[in-house]
């Protein structure tokens, strides 16, 4: 059995496809969504998210704050920022974090400031995760 998963950032559709499992970091802890899950809406906490696709591959993401909506055959993640872990290395993540912090200082509105702050926090989490992965190797 599978569930359709859509992962959407403020800029683009990041992932759309079938999965056997979706694990997100919600404000009250880690939440695992399986096919046939009861309907719910949860507020996401910035952090790691992973899904297992129909081929058994785990895909890893970092997600800023946002929402998760679950229906029995559909899970939708709506977040300001979503980063694919496999597309970033420590150098590019550090450069992106520096840009986000600079954009925070130059933000013209509170909304822009909050978006840049969320992105910088997310990149900090990603850098921490990348550092831990290097230590484990």
Automatic annotation (TrEMBL):
Gene3D superfamilies: F0F1 ATP synthase delta/epsilon subunit, N-terminal. This is ATP synthase epsilon chain. The keyword Magnesium does not apply. F-type ATPases have 2 components, CF(1) - the catalytic core - and CF(0) - the membrane proton channel. CF(1) has five subunits: alpha(3), beta(3), gamma(1), delta(1), epsilon(1). CF(0) has three main subunits: a, b and c. One of its GO terms (cellular component) is proton-transporting ATP synthase complex. It comes from the Bacteria. Belongs to the ATPase epsilon chain family. InterPro entries: ATP_synth_F1_dsu/esu, ATP_synth_F1_dsu/esu_N, ATPsynth_dsu/esu_N. The keyword Transport applies. GO terms for molecular function: ATP binding; proton-transporting ATP synthase activity, rotational mechanism. HAMAP family: ATP_synth_epsil_bac. It is a peripheral membrane protein. Residues 3-81 form the ATP synthase F1 complex delta/epsilon subunit N-terminal domain. Its main location: membrane. It is found in: Cell membrane. PANTHER family: ATP SYNTHASE DELTA/EPSILON CHAIN, ATP SYNTHASE EPSILON CHAIN, CHLOROPLASTIC. NCBIfam families: ATP_synt_epsi. Keywords: ATP synthesis, Cell membrane, CF(1), Hydrogen ion transport, Ion transport, Membrane, Transport. Produces ATP from ADP in the presence of a proton gradient across the membrane.
């Amino acid at each position: 059995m599978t569930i359709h998963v859509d992962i959407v950032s403020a800029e683009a559709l990041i992932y759309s496809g079938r999965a056997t499992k979706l694990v997100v970091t919600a404000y009250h802890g880690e939440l695992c969504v399986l096919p046939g899950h009861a309907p719910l809406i949860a507020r996401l906490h910035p952090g790691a998210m992973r899904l297992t696709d129909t081929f058994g591959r785990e895909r890893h993401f970092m997600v800023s704050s946002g929402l998760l909506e679950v229906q029995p055959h559909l899970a939708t993640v709506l977040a300001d920022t979503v980063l694919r872990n496999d597309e970033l290395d420590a150098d590019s993540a550090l450069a992106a974090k520096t840009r986000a912090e600079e954009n925070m200082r130059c933000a013209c509105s509170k909304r822009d400031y909050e978006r840049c702050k969320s992105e910088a926090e997310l990149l900090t989490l990603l850098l921490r995760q990348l550092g831990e992965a290097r230590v484990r190797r």
